[in-house]
Amino acid sequence: MNRLRKIAKYLSIVGLLSVALLVLAPQGQADAPPDLAGVGSSIGTFTEIAPQGFGDPVNNVSWAMIWWNDYLYVGTNRAWYCWSQWSLHVNYPFLYPYPPTDPDMDCADPITDMDLRAEIWRWTPGGTWERVYQSPANVSIPGTSQFTARDVGYRSMGLWTEDDGTEALYVGSVYPKAINPDNYPPPRILRTEDGVNWEAIPQDTGTLMGDYDSASFRGIVTYNDQFFIVAATIQGSGPVWVSENPSAGNNAFAVATPPELDVFEMIPYNGYLYVGTNDPLVPFGADASGETPEDIYGYTVQRTTAEGPLPYQFEMIVDEGAYLEPPSRAVVSMQEYNGMLYVGTDKPAELIRVHPDDSWELIVGSPRNTPLGPMVPLSGYDAGFNWPVYNIHLWRQEVFDGVLFVGTADQSTLDRNIANPPDPSKYGYDLYYTDDGINFYPITVNGMGDMFQMGIRTFATSEDAIYYGTSSFWTGLRVYEMQSSTNASALYLPLVSRGNGSGQTVASSAPASRPTAEAPARDYKMFDSSRPTRLMAEPTTNGTLLSWDAPANAAHFELFRQVVIPDPEHEGYWLPQASEALGSTTDRYFVDERASTDQHLRYFVIAVDGEGHRSQPSNFSGTPLSAPATTVSLLSDRFSAWGIAARPVVEASLLQPLDEVENHIQAGELAEARAQLDGMRARLTANPGLPTWRATDAEVLTHQLERRIWLAQLGLLPAEALTD
C-alpha cells in the first residue's frame, strides 16, 4: 500500500466536463437521515457469519474464497501489513521503518515472533466453521533455532477436473521470503479432493515448479481444457503458467505468456481467455526508479485462444490504460455481466466494460479524449466512485441474482492521524451494485461501520447466497452472507449527519401552476426496490433539475447534495464535501435553485415511506454533466451504431419510430411522443435488430428520453432540448 501512496502523487484525474447553466437561489432544508446502524452481527441484508478473524486478529485478509460441494472455503493471509512492511524494511530500511508507526497496528519486532501460518477454513451454512488446513512452520529463521511458516497466505482457489473425472480444489500460496531471503523454498500449490486432506503438488529442485522464486500463485482459471495460474510477485502480477495435468506439478507446467506480458487478472469470456495486465513500473515510484508519469504506459486488456505453440499469441483489446493521462497501471478485477466484460483497475480506480465485438466503454472514471473519440463515464461516477484519492482499487466483482456487485479497496483510514485527515464517515471499503450496468447504488461507503476494514478482497456465490470477505491492516477479517431475493431496504450507509429538522419541507418543489402528467413507469426487477433509482441531474436556467424513479411505497423524498472541490492535498483530484440537505418533495423531481455555475455538485435522493422509514440512497448524479443528456438524436445515433449488422430491422423497429417521436415533439405533441416511445420500449424486449447484450443499454436510454419528455410536459425542460 505504501508503494501505491508514493506513486499516487504522480497520478491525476482529468477534470469533469465544464457544462453548467445554474443560478443561485434559496431552498428549504430537510431533516437528514439518521445513522442506520445494524443490530448485532446482522447489518441490513448482509449478515456477518464468522467470528472476526476466525477468533484470531492475525487472520486479517480473506485472500481466497470459493463455494464447493456445499461448503464455503476461505483462505487467510496472516499479518499482511506487518510482513509487507518487514519486507520493505529489509530492502529499504531508511524509507520503511519497522515496526510501522501506526498506533493501532500491532506488529511484533522481530516479525518472526508472530505466528505467520496461513489457514484455510470452511463453513457449513447454518452450522459451524472449522479449520481444515494450517500451514506448517518448517522454514528455519536465520541465526536462531526457530522455524517460521511455509505459507503466509492462501491467495487463490480454483477447481479442476482430473482425467479420471475427479474434481479437485487447488489453492495458490504466498511465502514471506524476506524472513529468510537466501534459503526460502518456493511458494506452493495445494490440492484436495475432499476439503479435509491436503497435499502440495510436486515441486522438485531442477523443475519449473521447484526452481520458482517469485512470491506467490494466484488467479486460477480453467479454459479450453487447460489449467491457468499467475506466477505472481507479491504485488500480484507475473507470467501465466498453463498445464493439462496440474496435479503432477514439477514440469507439468509451462509459461503461456510472452516475456513482455505481465498479467494481473484473467477470465474466460466470449470464447477467449482475456487477461488484464500490469505496467511493471518499479514498485516504489519515481523516488526509486527515476520514472515519471510520462513513462507509465498503463494497463492493457488482451485475449487469446490458448491454441498453438507456446507462448500463446495475444490480441490487444484495450490499450494504454484506456487512454487516461496518466493511466492506471493495472487491471485488478474482471467479471462478466449481461454479456459484457467489466474490468476494474488500480488507482485511478476505474471501471470499463468490453463488448463481444471488442469495442469498450468507460463506466466509472474521468472523461478523456481517445483515438476512438471522447469517452465519458456512463455511470456519472468519477474514479473510485467519487472517492478518487482513497478508493485505490475496484478490487473485486461478483454477479448474483442478476446484479453486479463491485467492492473497493479504500486506504483512507491510513491517513486518519495526519494534519488534514479525510472524512471519517468514509473510512473503510465501499460496496456498490448495479442492475443495469450503468446506474450504481451504494450499499456501504464505510466498511459496514468498521473503519479498519479497508477492502473487499473476495466474493463467492452458491445457488442461494452471495458471500464476501474483507481485508484489514489492523485487525481480523470479516465474512458476510446475503441470501437470495432478500430486500435491501436497511443496508448500512450513513452518508449525512443527523439534522435538527428545523427547516424540513415536505411539499412539492413545483409551483402550483405547474402542468401535470403521469410519470413514466418502471418495472422493478432489481435487487433493492425500496430506494429511488436512476437519478438524473440536468442543468437548466432555473437550477439543477433532478428526477428519479420512485419505489411504490414512497410517501415523499429527501434531497441531498455534495459540493465537490479540488483536493488541496492531491493535485488533480476532486474531493466531495459533507452532504447537505436540500429539501423534500412528494414529486419525482426537484429543482436545486441554490446551485451555482462555478460549483461541481453531486446529488442523491432518499425515499421515506408513510411510517417514516428512510430508504438507502439513490445512485449519485451531478453537474457539470459527465455525459450528454439523452435526446432523439443521441438515441438514433446509438441505435444506428449498435444495429449496423441488422440495418433493415433497426430501421423498421427503432429508427422510423424515433422519427415519429421527433415529429410529435416538434409539433408540441408530447403525450403522443411519449406513447410512441413507450411502444418502442416494449419492442426492445423482442428482437429489434440490436445485439442482445445491448438490450439493457437500449432500455436505459429510451427510459431516460421518456423521462425528459415527461419533464418537458411539466414545463421543466424546453421541447427543443429533447431533439438536438
Helix fraction bin: 10-25%
Number of E-state strands: 41
Number of helices: 8
Largest sheet: 5 strands, antiparallel
What coarse outline follows from CA principal-axis ratios? Answer: globular
Can you tell me the CATH architecture of the domain at 17-33 and 495-623?
Sandwich
CATH fold descriptor of the domain at 17-33 and 495-623: Immunoglobulin-like
Query: In angstroms, what is the radius of gyration?
Result: 26 Å
CATH superfamily of the domain at 17-33 and 495-623, by name, is Immunoglobulins
Query: Strand percentage, roughly?
Result: 25-35%
Structural classification:
mainly beta
Low-confidence stretches: 1-44, 282-291, 487-512
Instruction: Please list the strands of the largest sheet in the order they lie side by side.
Output: 1-2-33-32-31
Mean pLDDT: 87
Distance between the termini: 47 Å
What do you see in this structure?
The structure is a single chain. The longest helix is centred in the C-terminal third of the chain and has 20 residues, at 647-666. This protein has 724 residues and is mostly beta strands. Mean pLDDT is 87; it is low at 1-44, 282-291 and 487-512. The protein contains eight helices and 41 strands. Among the domains are: 17-33 and 495-623, Immunoglobulins (Immunoglobulin-like); 632-722. The strands form eleven sheets. It has a five-stranded antiparallel sheet with strand order 1-2-33-32-31, with no helix packed on it. Strands 36, 37, 38, 40 and 41 form a five-stranded antiparallel sheet that branches. A four-stranded antiparallel sheet has the order 3-4-5-6, with no helix packed on it.
